[in-house]
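#struct-help
A.M.: can someone run this one for me? Single chain, 351 residues.
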Amino acid sequence: MKKPQKTKTKYIFLVLRIAVVAAGITWAVIWLSSGQRWQNLLETYKKMNLLLFAAILVVFALGQVLVALRWWILTKTQAIVISFAAAVRLQFLGLFYNNFLPGSVGGDLIRAWYVTKHTEKKFEAALSVFVDRVIGLTSTLIIACFFYNVFLKGQASQLNLRPKTGLIDQIAQNKHIFLYVLGALLLLLVIFLSNKQGRHALKTFVSKLALHGFSLLNRLKKAALIYCTKPLAIFQAFALTVFLQITTITAFWVLGKNLGIHLSVQYYYVFFTMAWVLGSIPVSIGGAVVVEGALAYMFINLASIQPENALALVFAQRIVWMIVSLLGAAIHLSGAHLPKDFSIDYQNSIN
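D.P.: on it. Structure tokens below:
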């Protein structure tokens, strides 16, 4: 009974994520169907320089190679050694899973699965994927906060970026939202506990946590200590992330200018990074609709960009992601992602 229930839960979350994407696409189609918006969007795309678009495809693909390099450095830190070429192939394979396959297995799980199948250090291997994701998200937030505070904060009042009241006042004014969210969470908890299978799942989770928790915490401590003794590797991972994100966003800034968006690049560094962070929340397929919606909202409502121009840019970003993701499909079809491509060294860590 456990497997069917687990499968049923997976399908429920999958359907909900697909529903989010479908709802977003439906709303976009309806909105564009009003007036001359489709025509305006097409006119905006006619301005696009195809050679420039091709160059951005190359830049984004090279950025994925740098992401693979970041993860490769972290695996070596834990003495889990795979070839750099294999890391690159898995990165593109994960990108394909994220953007095309509406399943519960994302790119991070793909990388973790293949590494754990070829090392006794299964926990450390999975942890390297988690640390890689944390470094990526943390670096993204740092970029957004840095450019907002250094370049945009003084101009915020002109572009509606500065809140008119303090944080406490904002929370007080919107307390009903927090109460609704809290009420929904409590309702879900009650429904979960009122179900026999839910109570059984919770009891099983607690028992397993008690059984394996101390062991996992000890292994986590050891792995964390290794990372702490390798500050150069962590710094390299952060530096790579900042470089590839700055480069990628700058490329989209150039594309935005080509599409008629005349806005300082600093806004792109804030808007794109914040949208990417929001897109990492697993409520849709590959962040679809969430990333586009957040970017469009910021460009239109905070920077006063024409809706058709903003949508042309955010749709172009998604097209770039999907085209580059097709490299992962080629890797999957050719079998280049299979375990035979891995080489393992359990003894030596990176110096």
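A.M.: thanks! Residues 156 and 231 are 36 Å apart (CA to CA).
D.P.: also worth noting: The chain has one domain: 2-162+230-341.
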